[in-house]
Specification:
7 strands, two-stranded antiparallel sheet, binds magnesium ion, 156 residues, 5 helices, alpha+beta, single chain
């Protein structure tokens, strides 16, 4: 078994669609990024790469590249899955936490779980998604940005 952790944060950007776990979320703002800014997928992708002993997401999907401009993060996660399969590894479980003062994420959690499980081609009960606020403290609390953590276990 191998364990991995991933973390990501993005600044908010008004007028951009918000996408979390490849699910469109009703919000006045999206996330500023070279890609679509799906902070939860980026944290999860880094956790999986970490568990596989691979480089970080910025190495495989550089924000200087035209190919990754406005990239659908679903494709990032799919390519990360291909990389671990190539390394002879299998995703056993992942637990993700989104940190957002707003919007309220509770109505979307189950849909995000299903979406991530679908992209990663695993059963729904192998992906967990949670959301929390930071009680109005720090950059997420001031609604300057959103962040996400993820941990995962891969088996050989
Ligand atoms: Mg990111």
């Amino acid at each position: 078994m191998r364990i991995g952790h991933g973390y990501d944060a993005h600044r908010i950007e008004f007028g951009k669609p918000l996408v979390i776990g490849a699910v469109p979320i009703k919000s006045d703002f999206g996330l500023k990024a070279h890609s679509d800014g799906d902070v939860l997928i980026h944290a999860l992708a880094d956790a999986i790469l970490g568990a596989a002993g691979l480089r970080d997401i910025g190495y495989y999907f550089p924000d200087s590249s035209d190919e990754t401009f406005n990239m659908d993060s679903k494709l990032i996660l799919k390519r990360v899955l291909e990389l671990i399969i190539k390394s002879g590894l299998k995703l056993e479980y992942a637990d993700c936490t989104l940190i957002a003062q707003m919007p309220k994420m509770a109505p979307y959690i189950e849909e995000i779980r299903k979406s991530l499980a679908d992209i990663l081609n695993v059963d729904y009960d192998r992906i967990n998604v949670k959301a929390t606020t930071e009680e109005k403290m720090g950059f997420t609390g001031r609604i300057e940005g959103l962040s996400a953590h993820a941990v995962c276990i891969l088996s050989e």
